[in-house]
Amino acid sequence: MATLTAPPTAAFPFTPSKDSSLVMNSAFSPSSSALTLATPSSPLPCITATITASTSSKRKHSSISTAPPTPNYPSLINTSQKITSFERKVYHLLLTIPPGSFTTYALLSTHLKSSPRAVGNALRKNPFAPGVPCHRVIATGNTLGGFKGKISRRSADGVGGVDTLIEKKALLQKEGVRFDGRGRVLGTPFKGFK
């Protein structure tokens, strides 16, 4: 942690350290003439600054979030050279399914005037998952269907592995989707495609 002896100005209540490393947090107290800075051990690729001023004119506080911004998935989909025009349409439709909702391969394929198998193949190749949420697409009858193009995935050494359907279910549950005792998704599939 570095300490500066000069107080910050009211217009700019935080200052980067002398060695140009990034400021993570800073605070100034009128009772002290020093500004304390917390700096990371290495520069971060993305910083989003959020400055919060208190209602008291005597005290200023600011913080900088080091969380990376959410990627612009529509732009990534539109500019990707690795996907087909059909896959592009599928991925854009996936972005219209709200978190906590789900749809079926059949409903997607009907909207796209294609087959459920073609939709499943596009989902299997999704390079933007889970940000472009292929896990929100389930089989007709509210069963999970497939995930990542297979039922289970083996580890690199061929021993053990992770059941991809457990992974799909966990992603859906994290978003608030509920299941019955037999593992079927509860609720009505999303149909509001644009």
UniProtKB/TrEMBL annotation:
Look at the named UniProt entry and state the broad enzyme category this protein falls under.
transferase
Q: Specify the superkingdom.
A: Eukaryota
Q: List the keywords (alphabetical).
A: DNA damage, DNA repair, Methyltransferase, Transferase
User: What reaction does this catalyse?
Assistant: a 4-O-methyl-thymidine in DNA + L-cysteinyl-[protein] = a thymidine in DNA + S-methyl-L-cysteinyl-[protein]; a 6-O-methyl-2'-deoxyguanosine in DNA + L-cysteinyl-[protein] = S-methyl-L-cysteinyl-[protein] + a 2'-deoxyguanosine in DNA
Transcription as UniProt keyword: no
Annotated GO biological processes are: DNA repair; methylation
Recorded E.C. number(s)?
2.1.1.63
Question: Which InterPro entries does the record match to this protein?
Answer: MethylDNA_cys_MeTrfase_AS (IPR001497), MethylDNA_cys_MeTrfase_DNA-bd (IPR014048), MethylDNA_cys_MeTrfase_DNAb (IPR036217), WH-like_DNA-bd_sf (IPR036388)
Gene Ontology terms, MF aspect: methylated-DNA-[protein]-cysteine S-methyltransferase activity
The reply to whether Cytoplasm figures as a keyword in the UniProt entry is: no
Matches recorded under Gene3D superfamilies: Winged helix-like DNA-binding domain superfamily/Winged helix DNA-binding domain
Looking at the record, the residues that make up the Methylated-DNA-[protein]-cysteine S-methyltransferase DNA binding domain are 86-177
PANTHER family recorded: METHYLATED-DNA--PROTEIN-CYSTEINE METHYLTRANSFERASE (PTHR10815:SF13)
Family per similarity comment: Belongs to the MGMT family.
Q: Mind telling me what this protein is named?
A: Methylated-DNA--protein-cysteine methyltransferase
